[in-house]
Design goal:
heterodimer, A: mainly alpha, 10 helices, B: alpha+beta, four-stranded antiparallel β-sheet, 9 strands, 27% helix
């Protein structure tokens, strides 16, 4: 946990609750899942709805994500991970899967790849997650060039691959790769996340 | 894929903006290369984007559906194990049992236009998902944690039931049917449950409509039948 979270009693309290709820999820306590839903269901549904654009699909994505969390909780380190960060990662991935399936692109990409389970980014994100709110993220995005920001939003919220972004924007594929890479690096800098780990 | 190629694609990779072939190639490279220590922090930066999406209140029934889906975890399902099970095909006509079973498999695949998507992860504890879709919009999804009996079955796109009816889900193995669950659809067209039932290749999952109270064997033709 970073210093700001330590100084912020609400953030510290949320952190303790997150650890506690994850521990209980690992013990297969259904009440813990209900708590996670009550705390983060709105965020999860909001993200899925932003990506998928309709209620029914967003429900599917959120339900899948919660079932995945339930099944995979034992693999997480309760002392490291924020359950909400982990949950939102799954919601995003599942939403993109559904979006691509709907568009008949990568239709067989049904699984949540192993990297979703990778705790390292979640561990790193945990250092700064307390700072993330819509305003601060928009501020971070404003440090990007317009084309970098467009490429990142097309990828993350519309599920386009770098080639599809190139087609849509008319930019060369190599240029799109660079925009995505440099854009994410700028975000990392804006969020104050270390480069090496 | 070389380190330079991976580095060039790393932004797209952490944004999930690579195709499956590229993702696999990058995953393979990262498993053996220690030169990309920035990966975790790039992924973490991307997680921040989630904060942009405005919070929305989900439909009220979603909470109940999710909790119902996990409510059975940790306890054995209420299977009805009878000593002697008739073959599924015997429900129809015994002398055509084998032919009917084979035909139903073929017709099931063609007529129902089942889309079978199977991805197997050889890593232990990896989730394995099988998704099947019928041509009337109905679907069944089977998610299993490799090496365990943790299985979640979801169904959707289902027609409303008449009074006195429930849907019943069956596992059919070696001609023996075993009821997995019965459920109704209060105000929704989908259902899901976590069931610690072992599934293996060759098992068949069938969804039927049964009278309330269930049946010891499927009493009606399946709404959907899929081969694992």
């Amino acid at each position: 946990m970073d210093g700001s979270a330590a100084r912020d009693p609400i953030a510290a309290s949320l952190r303790r609750e997150a650890v506690s709820v994850l521990t209980r999820l690992q013990r297969r306590d259904p009440a813990a899942l209900a708590e996670v839903y009550d705390l983060f269901g709105g965020k999860a549904f909001g993200l899925a709805h932003r990506i998928l654009g309709d209620t029914a699909s967003a429900e599917d994505a959120v339900q899948d994500a919660f079932l995945h969390l339930w099944n995979q909780a034992r693999r997480l380190d309760a002392n490291k991970g924020r359950v909400d960060t982990y949950l939102m990662t799954i919601v995003h991935r599942r939403s993109i899967d559904l979006l691509r399936r709907r568009a008949n692109r990568n239709a067989h990409h049904d699984l949540l790849p192993e990297d979703v389970i990778d705790e390292r980014p979640i561990d790193v994100a945990d250092e700064v997650a307390a700072k993330w709110d819509s305003e601060s993220v928009h501020r971070a995005l404003s440090t990007l060039g317009a084309e970098q920001r467009e490429a990142i939003e097309l990828a993350y919220f519309q599920g386009l691959t770098h080639r599809e972004i190139a087609e849509k924007t008319g930019a060369p594929v190599g240029t799109v790769k660079s925009r995505l890479r440099l854009g994410v690096e700028k975000l990392r800098f804006a969020f104050g996340i270390g480069g090496e780990r | 894929m070389t380190c330079d190629e991976v580095r060039e694609l790393l932004g797209a990779y952490v944004l999930h903006a690579v195709d499956d072939t590229e993702r696999q190639a990058i995953d393979d490279h990262l498993r053996t290369c220690g030169q990309h220590s920035e990966l975790a922090s790039l992924r973490a930066a991307v997680l921040g984007l989630n904060a942009i999406a405005p919070e929305r209140t989900p439909p009220s029934e979603l909470r109940q559906r999710i909790l119902q889906a996990t409510a059975r975890a940790g306890s054995p399902p209420a299977f009805q194990e009878s000593k002697v099970r008739r073959l599924w095909s015997k429900v129809a006509k015994p002398r055509y049992a084998i032919a009917a079973l084979a035909a139903s498999l073929i017709l099931g695949l063609i007529g129902w236009n089942v889309a079978l998507h199977v991805q197997l992860h050889d890593a232990s504890q990896s989730p394995v998902e099988r998704f099947y879709r019928g041509n009337q919009g109905e679907w069944i999804r089977v998610q299993t944690l490799a090496g365990t009996t943790d299985t979640t079955i979801s169904c959707g796109g289902l027609q409303p039931l008449s009074n006195g009816q429930v849907y019943a889900l069956w596992r059919i193995r070696n001609g023996q049917d075993q009821q997995i669950a019965t459920f109704s659809l209060p105000g929704t067209d989908r259902w899901a449950a976590h069931v610690p039932i072992p599934l293996q290749r060759g098992d068949m999952i069938a969804l039927t409509v049964e009278p309330i109270g269930g049946s010891t064997t499927p009493a009606n033709n399946p709404v959907m039948k899929v081969l694992i």
